[in-house]
Each structure stands twice: as structure tokens, then as C-alpha cells.
Amino acid sequence: MLLKKVFICSALRGDIHGNIEKANEYCRWAMLTHGALPIAPHAYFTRFLDDNSPAERELGITAGLELLTGCDELWYFGDRVTEGMAREINMANNLGLTVRHIGSKELNMNNEWRNPYEISL
Prior knowledge:
Layout: E1 5-9, H1 16-34, E2 37-39, H2 41-44, H3 54-68, E3 73-77, H4 83-94, E4 98-102, H5 104-107
Parallel strand pairs: 1-2, 1-3, 3-4
């Protein structure tokens, strides 16, 4: 069985730590409720790249866009689209991928997916 590869697109800048925790929750939701294989470069690359360094941030974005080319869909989360998210969404559209917005109402439809040891959204 092959899992659908879904690129998880959400904000990073600002509250980086909090936004990474949210990205992890979005990945958990995608996998547990939809059986998807979540691809969230911003939750991974920030483990070893410094988002406050313009060169390292750009390298992370470029690497993330490379991962996007192997995905089946892009799902974006949150109430706003940041500049980085817009780049990812535009590329997904150019690649002909399905682009889907996941709003907070859809995330909260079934709280059974939430990890009780992680943050509440």
C-alpha cells in the first residue's frame, strides 16, 4: 500500500518553536485521520538549519520545494498565507498538484487524533 504524499504547508516565522509544534500536529492529523504520508520540511530542516540566517533559510526553502516535486498534494494550514507559504502554494499549482486549505474547523472535527502530550491548537 502506497501512502499519498502530502506536503504540509504552514507558517514558520514569528513564533518558530510554536509554529514547529503546530506543524508536527498537522502531520499527526494528516497521518492519523487521512492515512497520508506528511512531508513537512519546515519541521525537519529547522533541526539543523538556522531560519534567522537568510542563506540557511533560503537553502531550507529551496530544499523544501525540491521535496514538493515528489508530493501528490499540498495542504496548507492556518488563517493566513505567509510569503514562504505562497511560494510553496504557487509551485504546487504550477506542478498541477491538488492544493487544499485545512481550516481550524476541519482540524477540530475529531479531537481523537490529538496527542495529549502536545500542544492544543
